[in-house]
Amino acid sequence: MPKRPDLKSVLVIGSGPIVIGQAAEFDYSGTQAIRVLKEEGVRVVLVNSNPATIMTDPELADATYVEPITPAVVAKIIEKERPDALLPTLGGQTALNTAIALDKDGVLERFGVELIGANIEAIELGENRELFKGVVERAGGESARSHIVHTMEEALAAVEDLKYPVVVRPSFTMGGLGSGMAYDEADLHRICGAGLQYSPTSEVLLEESILGWKEYELEMMRDKNDNVVVVCSIENVDPVGVHTGDSITVAPAMTLTDREYQKLRDISINVIREVGVDTGGCNIQFAVNPADGRVVVIEMNPRVSRSSALASKATGFAIAKIATKLALGYTMDEIPNDITQKTPASFEPVLDYVVVKVPRFAFEKFPAADPTLTTTMKSVGEAMAIGRNFTEALQKALRSLEQKGSELAFPQDADPRELLRRARTATTDRLAQTQQALYAGATIEEAFEATAIDPWFLDQFVLINEVADQIRDAEVLDESLLRHAKRHGFSDAQIGSLRHMGADVVRGVRHALGVRPVYKTVDTCAAEFEAFTPYRYSSYDLETEVAPHEGRSVIILGSGPNRIGQGIEFDYSCVHATMALREAGYETVMVNCNPETVSTDYDISDRLYFEPLTLEDVLEVIAAEEASGGVLGVYVQLGGQTPLKLAQQLADAGVPILGTSPEAIDLAEHRGEFARVLDRAGLVAPKNGTAVSFEDAKRVADEIGYPVLVRPSYVLGGRGMEIVYSEEALAHYVEHATEITPDQPMLVDRFLEDAIEIDVDALYDGERMYLGGVMEHIEEAGIHSGDSACVLPPVTLGPDVLERVHRATERIAAGVGVRGLINIQFALASDVLYVIEANPRASRTVPFVSKATGVQLAKAAAMIGVGRSIADLQAEGVLPTAYDGATLPLGAPVAVKEAVLPFTRFRTAEGRVVDSLLGPEMRSTGEVMGIDRHFDTAFAKSQAAAGGPLPTSGRVFVSVANRDKRTLVGQAKRLVDLGFQIVSTGGTAEVLRRNGIPAETVAKIAEAGGEDGAGTVLEQLHAGTVDLVLNTPSGGDARTDGYEIRAAATSLGVPVITTTAEFGACLQAIEAMRAYEWSVTSLQEHDARLQQAVEASA
Questions:
Q1: In DSSP terms, which residues pair with 518 in a beta bridge?
Q2: Average pLDDT in the chain
Q3: How far, in Å, CA of 537 to CA of 305, rounded?
Q4: Which of 161-175, 178-192, 474-488, 576-590 has the lowest mean pLDDT?
Q5: Tens digits of per-residue pLDDT, 325-371?
Q6: Do the Cβ atoms of 1080 and 77 come closer than 8 Å?
Q7: What is the average per-residue pLDDT within 790-794?
Q8: Looking at CB atoms within 10 Å, which of 6, 204, 813, 1060 has the fewest?
């Protein structure tokens, strides 16, 4: 059946901000879908609140709405745009839930909008646990025994039948939010109580424990002619009990017999038919009991999921692209496979290699959090690697994580009993503990008993350990030994540490002996047909598949696995660079190891190398490109800190670096050198010094005066930063700080209180500067720029300040020697402009600035790197001439960026939420953007999009530190005038009453003494009578009232504001929400308005 002629325009719903459990994979699938729809001549309308994505680029869809993804807002867009159909299967749970709500509210019917890609019945069958049990039975499978409950009483009754431990799963949540294992009644009260709140339908499933079983998933596709293909089978190395997103996974499945695999395949095909998914993909998860082979179907997702991105990258089968074509009416036999160009999509992919995915965690950001892995997903990113066997793929994936200690080590004096005791609990160290226990003499049987990891994987760890011993004990490192080690994935660094030599020495020996990797192709068909897309991975095999290329290649190093502080924003810059360079006629090569991103899509660059971003792997890719046609140069400034760290070493190896030079990158990081740049430019930085010991640090702090900001050098995302108010706190910091060495001293800065922080992104070509954007932070300095809300154009800075910022930016860019992008942070305190830091690279605000001002900064930066000037780019229309980011006309839209924080996922060992206080260390996983004509509405939109919509009436709890009480009086007065009731404690209530502001007083938690918080604000929060919390911290002990209040409000989803500056913005937003109804405007319309405003002011 060819394409349906009646679909002229389609609305695509994105997945919103990046949160744990719903990450960049939906940007990747959404971008593919939009490209397919455009190719098919359909008008595309998109709604997505996340500015850091490629899918929200104004040139992709016809109308791009960066608006909150709520049913009310999407209904307005439908009313305005009148699409023929809605495609909700590419935006994760957010998009599905929104589509279900729009269907229930009758919006789709009212405007005649058809749901394509999925039908409501199929979604309900797949998502509703009780209905799904029936599906599984009819499909010849079985489910775990379970009960559905809506109250705690029902839960306690259900446990009588199921017996502890039970698994608790709330319905309609994403990434296992709110789920967990209850071992006794106290656990049940805690987990099930929270689960009832997290589930939008207050429905929770309790089921028998299948802990320790083997977990598998199958990624499936089906079309309306009932063609079904299994795209990929995936096996979890960790047994059931760890969320699949937090588990190391391997494709294809390794430990299934053919008969078992066929059984899973049959059940899956029956399930997908029974559910009625007939235009797209779905993924089905199984558990298999290792004792007797009993198979249980865990769940299915009737949409493109995290596993689909992994399956796509693992097989080269473009799931999202094909799902979109199916939604338009095609069938699989009509869709050609891009890679082979001969086989149709109904041809099942075959793998002649092994793929391993390893998750990356961020527990170091939440020291109070319990690092045990459970059924609630906690990882913030993942790395994938491809090898010819399991050991090679596993070791490559581990080194792709870029975390200290992520590569396997081989200590000779470890205690196997102790290691296995620790490995009984699932944590991020379990793999290494198990492997080292085996190395220290534990048997495979003992390791299996402790971890329930399949003996086949344990045997592979033993194999790695045997190779390590061979490397350690060999007389001499000869060619056959090196080849053997490399075929099992050992890096030069690992070989070096086993033989007590540097990694560079190992590399020298290896090159002298001619042991170099070859590159193989991911081709979907195990080399049965020729592949036309160069999507490659390295292996120490015999023949290479790298074909000669005509032009010299431009290599872009990506940003590796997502993490807090380095997310999808950097991938955005890499993708923009490759797009601009290809358009200008350059051959581009992408090197990256993150399966979630757009950059690792096989048709974004001319060639893709799916490789770890370590010096060894990158040098080998460059050598292969050099040998097959030459390399023009490498970009290291686009992917964040990951490739930036390699800049100097690559230059030392004779690799040409495009854009800003390694010397300039170093100069900006080096305290003394950078201070000289500022001196020559006549600029000031906060007083500072460097220290390598506590005595040093104390001397510096006494000289410049407390409070001071302390941090290690060379960090991204403010890792290890703290504001220290006293000498005791400084001693504590130095004692617990990680590696402080003379090469990497700690930095001590005077902390500016009550300063306005300003963020600037600019381009410099050696002669001229283009100022991309000036962002004013809403929170005061001292909160990491990645976590602070910011507004562009600035709303409280006068033209004279912007002029000073402009001059300072130009002088710093020239002084550092930037060729491309630079990000500078300033602080304005008592009308003095201080320079906090300069980063000569693409920053995390580049996508936000590009969307807010309609200027593609990353594309311009890439062109500057190959020698174009800003004047050239202005002549070509890439950059505007009539205005820049500091001189936007008055009619320009106002954009607000707000951070999205993952506190609900991180709990202490007692099950409480970690503190939601913001500070100088970055903790947000993603961001949203609100854009409107006026700041107040833009801010209100940003809060709604970030999942904490502001109330327009009700009760507000306020409790502030002494330094904020003066500001609060005016703010509280406005609240009362707006009809809000105020609830407060002790000192704050007294100040308010003295100023004639009525406030209900509640007891302080510490004084109430009651276990359940009776008589305090906690009681009111749990009763749902408090709608907004303002609580500014007064320093001191973390176990104070503030923490209790913030933790309770965060876990109940009540908006918590922790600075009076942001509270002021909230008041403006609340006033606007009460006075005006929101309008929805696409980026394309905003841009047209901006151009009109420019012409009007010219």
A1: 539
A2: 86
A3: 24
A4: 161-175
A5: 998 989 999 988 887 778 888 888 889 999 999 999 877 776 777 78
A6: yes
A7: 91
A8: 6
In a 3-state reduction of DSSP, which class is residue 673? Answer: helix
- Check: CB of residue 37 under 8 Å from CB of residue 44: yes
The CA distance from 794 to 1067, in Å, is 18
- Of 306 and 912, which is predicted with more confidence? 306
- Rounded CA gap, 911 and 906, in Å? 9
Yes or no: say if 94 and 15 are a contact pair by the CB < 8 Å rule.
yes
CA dihedral 434, 437, 441, 447 (to 10 degrees): -40
Average pLDDT over residues 992-1020: 75
Considering only CA atoms, which of 264, 580, 255 is closest in space to residue 448? 255
What digits encode the pLDDT tens for the residues 236-276?
A: 999 988 888 889 999 999 999 888 899 999 999 999 888 88
Of 485, 475, 537, nearest in space to 507 by CA: 485
Tell me what pLDDT residue 708 has. Answer: 82
Q: Are 295 and 282 spatial neighbours (Cβ–Cβ below 8 Å)?
A: no
Distances (CA, A) of 750 to 34, 289, 703, 735, 827: 49, 59, 10, 20, 12
**Region for residue 549 given its phi and psi (left: phi exceeds 0; alpha: psi -120 to 50; beta: otherwise):** beta
Residue 120, token pair as written in the block: 């409501």
* Alpha carbons 33 and 28: distance in angstroms, whole number: 9
347: Cβ–Cβ under 8 A, 6 or more apart, which residues? 229, 337, 524, 525
Lowest mean pLDDT among 62-66, 198-202, 860-864: 198-202
Nearest to 1081 by CA among 46, 77, 95: 77
Structure-block tokens of residue 322 = 């094909």
Q: How far is CA 19 from CA 140, 256, 563, in A?
A: 36, 33, 11
Kindly state the tokens that stand for 810: 């130009």
3-state helix, strand, coil in the chain (%, to 5): 40, 20, 40
Q: 982: which strand partners?
A: 956
Q: In this structure, are residues 389 and 599 in contact, taking their beta carbons and an 8 Å threshold? A: no
Q: How far is CA 114 from CA 4, 9, 74, 246, 456, in A?
A: 13, 11, 14, 36, 48
The pLDDT-based confidence of 1037 (bands split at 50, 70, 90) is very low
Q: Which of 296, 289, 300, 324 shows the shortest CA–CA distance to 220?
A: 300
The per-residue pLDDT for range 811-849, each reduced to its tens digit, is 999 999 999 999 999 999 888 999 988 999 999 899 999
How far apart CA 751 and CA 757 sit, in angstroms, is 12
Pairing of strands 518-521, 535-539: antiparallel
C-alpha dihedral over 907, 909, 912, 913, to 10 degrees?
Answer: -20
Distance CA 178, CA 1053 (A): 13
> Tokens representing 158?
């259900």
Closest listed residue to residue 54, CA positions, set 822, 573, 820, 583: 573
Task: State the SS3 of 610-628.
Answer: ECCCCHHHHHHHHHHHHHC
Query: Regarding beta strands 354-360 and 381-387, do their DSSP bridges make them parallel or antiparallel, or are they unpaired?
Result: antiparallel
Whole-number pLDDT of residue 1039: 42
DSSP lists the bridge partners of residue 824 as 760, 838
pLDDT classification of 908: cutoffs 50, 70, 90:
low
Mean pLDDT of 316-323: 88
Cα–Cα–Cα angle for 229, 232, 235, nearest 5°?
Answer: 140
Give the contacts of 99 (CB within 8 A, at least 6 positions apart).
13, 86, 88, 115, 118, 120, 123
Give the pLDDT confidence score for residue 821 in this predicted structure. Answer: 95
Judged by average pLDDT, the poorest of 53-67, 796-810, 1038-1052 is: 1038-1052
Q: How is residue 831 written in tokens?
A: 């009308």
